[in-house]
């Protein structure tokens, strides 16, 4: 079993490393790398089931090496014309896969930032007093969604109970929505979990939306499919594509189900304008000029 002493011994190999001669330094670095590998969980082991990522495929490793070697930002087309186009092509390939033929998307380093962006977009679309705004999340939602709401200044964060099967309790949801309506609050966001990190369960999307329709409420519907997004590559893809076409945004984490190197997450939105408006509304003239193709901004 790994101990604190093992970690300390490994880290001590770096002490005074810059005072050594080059041969001694290289020898110490070699020992440090070998020690690091020996005390780090082996992701290539079939027993590596605890964490929500897998070993990267060779193409991903090579691509990761190339992108790190080039070390180019892709925030504008001028900085990296090829990588920018690669991102756009990937997004355009994924959109019809999840039922967003007219949508848009952006890659983020991890599902946490993708979830944060979805809450931010919901706040921007709602254009209501944050003090009167409410978001609903289930007990099995990823912690990043609640954290995102706090970052965006939303204090009314209400959790919906889940059943023993790990999905949203529809009766409790109906009670909460009714109370929100009675209190004259604005429900601006709801997160449907498509593959929870604990049980791998999928929320009953259609029944959830029926409740919102019953009370004439239209919150931003976000699909957290960071873990369960692999279904869009399965035989049941058409069924889940139909479900996600009812949502406003969805997050997929390719390091969880497609063996991409850490971290590879994408946020896709059904309405292209919500991302375009955010880019053009910000004061970034030093980056985004009028002669640029908005497609690659």
UniProtKB/TrEMBL annotation:
Superkingdom: Bacteria
GO cellular component: cytoplasm
SUPFAM superfamilies: PLP-dependent transferases
Molecular function terms, GO-annotated: aromatic-L-amino-acid decarboxylase activity; pyridoxal phosphate binding
PANTHER family the record matches: CYSTEINE SULFINIC ACID DECARBOXYLASE, GLUTAMATE DECARBOXYLASE-RELATED
GO biological process: carboxylic acid metabolic process
Cofactor(s) in the UniProt record: pyridoxal 5'-phosphate
Full protein name: Uncharacterized protein
Gene3D superfamilies, per the entry: 3.90.1150.170, Type I PLP-dependent aspartate aminotransferase-like (Major domain)
């Amino acid at each position: 079993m790994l101990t604190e002493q093992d970690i300390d011994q490994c880290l001590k190999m770096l002490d005074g490393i810059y005072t050594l001669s080059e041969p001694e330094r290289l020898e110490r670095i070699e020992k440090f790398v070998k020690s690091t590998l020996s005390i780090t969980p082996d992701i290539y082991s079939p027993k590596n089931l605890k964490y929500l990522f897998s070993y990267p495929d060779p193409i991903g490793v090579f691509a990761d090496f190339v992108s790190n070697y080039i070390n180019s930002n892709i925030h504008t087309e001028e900085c990296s014309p090829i990588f920018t186009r690669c991102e756009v092509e990937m997004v355009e390939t994924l959109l019809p896969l999840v039922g967003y033929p007219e949508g848009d998307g952006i890659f983020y380093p991890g599902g946490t930032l993708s979830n944060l962006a979805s809450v931010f977009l919901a706040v921007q679309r709602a254009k209501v007093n944050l003090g009167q705004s409410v978001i609903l999340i289930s007990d099995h939602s990823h912690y990043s969604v609640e954290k995102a709401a706090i970052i965006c200044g939303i204090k009314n964060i209400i959790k919906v109970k889940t059943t023993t099967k790990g999905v949203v309790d529809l009766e409790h949801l109906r009670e909460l929505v009714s109370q929100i309506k009675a209190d004259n609050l604005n429900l601006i966001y709801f997160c449907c979990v498509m593959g929870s990190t604990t049980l791998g369960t999928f929320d009953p999307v259609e029944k959830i939306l029926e409740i919102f329709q019953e009370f004439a409420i239209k919150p931003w519907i976000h699909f957290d499919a960071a873990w369960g997004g692999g279904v869009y590559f399965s035989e049941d893809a058409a069924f889940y594509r139909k479900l996600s076409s009812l949502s406003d945004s969805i997050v997929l984490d390719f390091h969880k189900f497609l063996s991409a190197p850490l971290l590879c997450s994408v946020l896709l939105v059904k309405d292209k304008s919500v991302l375009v408006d955010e880019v053009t509304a910000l004061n970034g003239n030093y980056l985004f000029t009028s002669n640029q193709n908005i497609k690659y901004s």
